[in-house]
Amino acid sequence: MSNPLPHAITESLYRDHHSWLRGWLRGRLGCSQQAADLAQDTFLRLMNNRRPLSTIGDKPRALLTHIAKGLVIDHWRKRDVERAYLDALMQLPEGEAPSPETTHLIIETLTRIDAMLWRMSARTRDIFLLAQLEGLTLEQIATQTQTPVITVRRHIHKALLACMELA
Questions:
Q1: In whole numbers, what is the pLDDT of the chain averaged over residues?
Q2: What Cα–Cα distance (Å) separates residue 12 from each residue in 37, 47, 122?
Q3: Which of 56, 65, 80, 142 has a 20 to 30 A CA-CA distance from 157?
Q4: Distance between CA 79 and CA 120 in Å, rounded?
Q5: What 8-state DSSP symbol labels residue 119?
């Protein structure tokens, strides 16, 4: 049987802080609908957190703000990815653009790839992108980054593992 305490704590947090959080998010996003969505997502994330809710302590707004800031950053990144993709679509000849459903799937995939890349260290990401986007060999990357080839290989291996986890 589930413990009713987490539900009671979540309900109390929601009742006491949801309006405040929604207002805080509205101030950052400039849109009440997006603020409402991200406030809901913040509480969902809080409920799915593996740590016991009883460890929140006496500063629940600090935790809610921390979670919400991460969601705002994700929101902005997704918006930037979507904007870049739609700008690229505008360069296609008329009639060659994918369907709205395909466009949505592509944007979701690009957003996941973007998030994966930003979870990597800057060094790993830069080396991986040199290999994947510029088509440089390990030796060329090693020369350009002044890094031993074995280290370049390790960074690419780490990035490829991240890609496999995403798939």
A1: 89
A2: 19, 12, 40
A3: 80
A4: 20
A5: H
The CA distance from 98 to 22, in Å, is: 35
> Cβ neighbours of residue 50 under 8 Å, at least 6 residues apart?
none
**Are the C-beta atoms of residues 72 and 43 closer than 8 Å to each other?**
no
- CA separation for the pair 16, 152 (Å, rounded): 51
CB contact set of 80 (below 8 Å; sequence gap of 6+) = none
Q: Helix, strand, coil shares of the chain as percentages rounded to 5?
A: 80, 0, 20
| Residue 11 confidence class, pLDDT cut points 50, 70, 90 | confident
Side-chain half-sphere of 162: how many Cα atoms within 13 Å?
19
